[in-house]
Fold each of these.
Amino acid sequence: AQKITQTQPGMFVQGKEAVTLDCTYDTSDQSYGLFWYKQPSSGEMIFLIYQGSYDEQNATEGRYSLNFQKARKSANLVISASQLGDSAMYFCAMRGGGYSTLTFGKGTMLLVSP
Amino acid sequence: GAGVSQSPSNKVTEKGKDVELRCDPISGHTALYWYRQSLGQGLEFLIYFQGNSAPDKSGLPSDRFSAERTGGSVSTLTIQRTQQEDSAVYLCASSLVTGQSSGYTFGSGTRLTVV
């Protein structure tokens, strides 16, 4: 079974600062993929970034980077230079090697102040 | 189409009535997924389609829930004899392949309220 844990129900950050959203996972698979999605108040889920378990480098996409620590089974999302538009719910998810579906965490609500 | 389309966007129904939720995936996407998101909760997996077959429907919460997909395209999620605990946002997603690195493209969801 796969499990995703996001321990921060809510986070508050000042605009232009960096923020880290925590995600830990549990799986017995050797090969798996980790994803982060953003859900603004409009409700649509927006894909942000992907990290494969065998990728040697941390994934980056613009202001988003994934701090992947395989031994600790953590896949934290780092948002640099936060903006008001980053205020949203953020979900960490994973897909194991033998599974076709994504397993999601409960999410972290991020609020960015001006 | 350009994105995943879900209809209706909002549905209010009386307890005990049946409802049908529709999902039109991105053209050519063979995999289709239904999730449910209750207020303040994460996404709960319901069912996964590959083509017209459903290799994983382990998340359907009861036999009141059913889903089908026709022509490898449109899918319908049906909830019979709705209950108040069925109130949630129902999200549909599709993907081109089911490989490990394939993320989903989500629709905007159907907000179901059972009164």
Amino acid sequence: AQSVSQHNHHVILSEAASLELGCNYSYGGTVNLFWYVQYPGQHLQLLLKYFSGDPLVKGIKGFEAEFIKSKFSFNLRKPSVQWSDTAEYFCAVNENRDDKIIFGKGTRLHILP
Amino acid sequence: DTEVTQTPKHLVMGMTNKKSLKCEQHMGHRAMYWYKQKAKKPPELMFVYSYEKLSINESVPSRFSPECPNSSLLNLHLHALQPEDSALYLCASSQSANEGRHTGELFFGEGSRLTVL
């Protein structure tokens, strides 16, 4: 069974700091990978996604993620965070053959102004 | 704004009540999902419908009964729930894996917040 691990449960940063959130998955076959964000009081929305091709994917709001197949990882990065990035971030994985999409436990990011 | 609409936004029910949650999307997606999300926890997959047929049931108790009347609508019927079932219930849709253009990208509604007394 596929699983997703997020290593950082709660991250606190100051504005302008760099961010990297870890995500590892367990499935050895072809996968689709996602980062979703949930701002306080809002619904989940897609930040970025990887299906194939360039392993470095860029998303909205200056976020990017790198797929490293050998490490089963899909870490999320942002060079300089803003107070408005305060939110919960979920990594998700989908085996490229069915409709099952599984979420990691999430990382709560708090940016200090 | 999300293109997946869920009603009601809030629901309070007793353990003997029968109620339903509703979800609607008009993006032409053929896969629809129910997730359950407790506070400070990730969404947990409950059910997936693909082409109006139940394709995934994650061993959900029978007091939750999903229904997909057509490609745009998804219901979750609730009966004899327990207080621990209180949570945010999220509906989502996506292109189905069967469509050949499957991306797995989910479009979420804002959720129905359920409280069971």
Amino acid sequence: GQQLNQSPQSMFIQEGEDVSMNCTSSSIFNTWLWYKQDPGEGPVLLIALYKAGELTSNGRLTAQFGITRKDSFLNISASIPSDVGIYFCAGTLGETSGSRLTFGEGTQLTVNP
Amino acid sequence: DTAVSQTPKYLVTQMGNDKSIKCEQNLGHDTMYWYKQDSKKFLKIMFSYNNKELIINETVPNRFSPKSPDKAHLNLHINSLELGDSAVYFCASSLVVLPGGNSPLHFGNGTRLTVT
């Protein structure tokens, strides 16, 4: 099935640093979503993107829907210890009934205080 | 006030056994899902139900059988468990059948299944 290539797989940063991660696909996506998963919990939606070129912020998080509709990035500014977790990109290919939400492989973020 | 709740949180069982995982959502959503997260944290959809009707059935062994008695519940029954079934299983729901920003997925906290 369709897969999203997410990078990097893991990041180790110091508190206060900025972080950037991205996802690419060989197919055109209609929506891009970014989720965060804390240990022992399910993923939680951070940002949703609907249009090519769209740039959306949620606090210290900023995400963009690539112009080609084949990629997206997520930036986290001034990281704090509670940013630790796994970040997933996800996207949908179609808008018909039964469209699947495909997830990237995840980026494990570690923030050292 | 848990939105998507699944039980049990941990399930340890032996090969060959049959087990069930239950899921309930109180969000009034029409669509529910089962996802499997493997040891590398990769999330893959297994099933999707819209208002009790199966709409997505990925390539999953037929030992896995979902059941939706009503649109607020989607249970997962697994027969003849195998070692490779060990994973974290997530239930999720969305307002409508198209998952996306307008209808984002709400996940439960997962059931960690260990088959020995």
Amino acid sequence: AQSVTQPDIHITVSEGASLELRCNYSYGATPYLFWYVQSPGQGLQLLLKYFSGDTLVQGIKGFEAEFKRSQSSFNLRKPSVHWSDAAEYFCAVATNTGNQFYFGTGTSLTVIP
Amino acid sequence: DVKVTQSSRYLVKRTGEKVFLECVQDMDHENMFWYRQDPGLGLRLIYFSYDVKMKEKGDIPEGYSVSREKKERFSLILESASTNQTSMYLCASSSPHWDGYGYTFGSGTRLTIV
């Protein structure tokens, strides 16, 4: 069965520090992987996605993620965090038809000045 | 841009009421979804629809129903609202033709049942 695990419920980083949010997935076929961000009181916004090809993908707001098939991981990174990055982050895997997504439980990011 | 619009940002209803949450998308997407979001539980799928008049149960359909009379509109119905249905409700839509955009979400409805 498909599933997504985000092992870190909450992370706190200082502004300007680097960030890595972890995501592990379980899926039998080639995964289609996504990262979404949710600001307080808002819906989810797509940060980046991986379908195939280069395993390092770039997204909006300076985020990137690396797909590692051997580790079943799709970790999100940012070299220097800004206070406006404080939000909830969700990793998701989609079926190969794109008809249904499976979401992790999310990681809440706090940025301290 | 695809837009998914949820009719209310905040809603307060009483226990036992029949509650309607409306979602409209403007990009001719076939797929539409309703999730509820609770702290520590992430997003849980309530119902989804791949076509007009079609609906499928998600992981937590109990206490909910849906209606899809038109392609662009997907309504979530709480038949008899209870306090444990207080939550954030998110609607999403997508194309089945794998256009690469994944889901597009609405801004959410924060529903409080008192």
